[in-house]
Design brief:
The protein is mainly beta. It has one helix at about 1-15, and strands at about 35-40, 50-55, 60-65, 70-75, 85-95, 105-110, 115-120, 130-135, 150-155, 160-170. It has 1 helix and 10 strands; from the N terminus they run H-E-E-E-E-E-E-E-E-E-E. A hairpin with a 6-residue loop joins strand 6 (about 105-110) and strand 7.
Length: about 180
């Protein structure tokens, strides 16, 4: 009798397994460039020029004008978001970004009113090298799946800033290199 119940339970689970969403979220990369939207209405210190475009496999965000800033937003597709993942990982390169404190570098919309700061600009490294920024969504008490992200390009005193977003993705594991 117990074996019959066990077999019934296993059979039911096997039938439901194809319905489960077992896929990993797709990463955001260079192909997303046309979907990023500049948000000049959000700021008072507008750059002289700004752009977003695909450069190789990366999305390149550019802004010119010392002391200015430009936020760019992306609404994530259903395939790109994962409400169960612990981490949001961002592989990037940056030059000319102001890394002084006080501004956001990455902001996320995850169900709370106005969203939450995922990382401050003081967490960015603007040496032109490749870096992975780890956002611990659990530690930030994210309320639900991240549906939109904003990146803010704050231009340092040199007057010219570029951020190359190589990859943005959700994961349950931190990369060994992070």
């Amino acid at each position: 009798m117990r074996v019959d119940r066990y077999l019934c339970l296993v059979s039911t689970l096997l039938l439901l397994l194809p319905c489960a969403d077992l896929r990993a979220a797709e990463p955001v990369g260079g192909a997303s460039a046309p979907r990023w939207q500049a948000q000049p209405a959000w700021i008072t210190r507008k750059p002289q020029s700004f752009a977003v475009k695909t450069e190789g496999a990366a999305v390149a965000f550019h802004a010119a004008g010392a002391g200015t800033e430009m936020p760019f937003t992306l609404v994530l597709s259903e395939a790109e978001t994962d409400g169960d993942a612990r981490y949001l990982l961002v592989k990037y390169r940056a030059k000319g970004i102001d890394v002084g404190g006080g501004n956001y570098f990455i902001h996320g919309y995850e169900g709370t009113h106005g969203g939450i700061r995922f990382a401050g600009n003081d967490e960015a490294i603007a040496d032109g090298g490749s870096h992975i920024l780890v956002v611990d969504l659990e530690a930030l008490h994210a309320q639900g799946p991240t549906t939109q992200v904003a990146l803010k390009i704050s231009v340092a005193a040199g007057g010219d800033a570029t951020l190359w977003l190589d990859r943005l993705w959700f994961s349950d594991e931190k990369p060994a290199s992070a």
